[in-house]
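Model it.
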Amino acid sequence: MLIGQEITVLGAGIAGLAVATALAQRGAKVRVLDQADAIREVGAGLQISPNGAVVLKALGLGDALAEAAPRARAVVLRDFRRGAQVFRMGLARADRPYHLVHRADLIEILRRGAKAAGVTVELGRRVVAVTPEVDGVRLSCADGHTETVPLLIGADGLHSPTRAALNKPVRPFFTGQVAWRCTIPLDAPDTPPEASVHMGPGRHIVTYPLRGGALMNVVAVEERDGWAAEGWSHRDDPANLRAAFADFAPEIRDLLYRAGEVYLWGLFRHPVAKSWGQGRVALLGDAAHPTLPFLAQGANMALEDAWVLAATLADEEDTDTAFARYEAARRARCARIVEAASKNAENYHLRPGPYRAAAHAALRLGARLAPQAVAGRFDWLYGHDVTAGR
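Modeled.
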């Protein structure tokens, strides 16, 4: 049903480029609008787990991902003070590739895939309002330009004007946590392709190598009473990051000593959107279900959304029916992931005492006696394949 259909996508991020490619490969005529004046190397590291990797493979981009980001070997939970291993989850299953990739590299892979599929990308197009109409969707731009498009997909992120067109505003709440993000030059090609989580009282820090060990990605989270502004582009003094983790293991202190450009953002909890599609408008990715970063699933949910939305639009002539099927297929899973991510910070930030000691002992025992059973707790997440049979 998509052959020749004109579709406009707002946002040239992971969600937008992925859905544009999936739609164009099914015959749609797709253009992507983005407010940036260039697709730059922004952001830092991402974890593409097997449920996201299968979508990239289905889009014909699996080899490009493997070339840009060799497969990860494990996720390792560590004690904050000594760096001792608490639990290790192996990621070596051949049928479930897991990749640690720079966001800019993934965007470039998706950009090339979109271009090959015939997608047009228009930059410098900042849409400030979306207005559904009977036979289309009116877009109002910051420069005063307006236009009406036949079908709109909102992949326009956390503060989405597309979401605002379908849902009443809901005030997000501050979680009591802030996060620093940075990449640190390493020049260490022998660094193991593993993600490490050093867990401390009220704090944790996630590190993993990028680009063959040329960079170390760092996401460091701290509980605090005050709040930082939402968004991840606020610069901070690296000394503040070092001070917050001054009692962590020597390898963490040494790494943070080398940090240069550091960004800080406040972590806010947003509800899952009540409406994901109506009339000639639909949402996906962060615009539909913003998540906290504690399960590394934001990019993967966006990739899953992109495939399912394109498939349902291809199957159904009526867009309302397609959007209803899409939301029904995605809502419960995405809500479960959002909730699981929110709870993960609590597990990482246990205070010293009997409960923390017992929790870590249980993880160590489980890893020793039944490692596959413990890792199997994530089968519902990593084993999900939205492309199966499509």
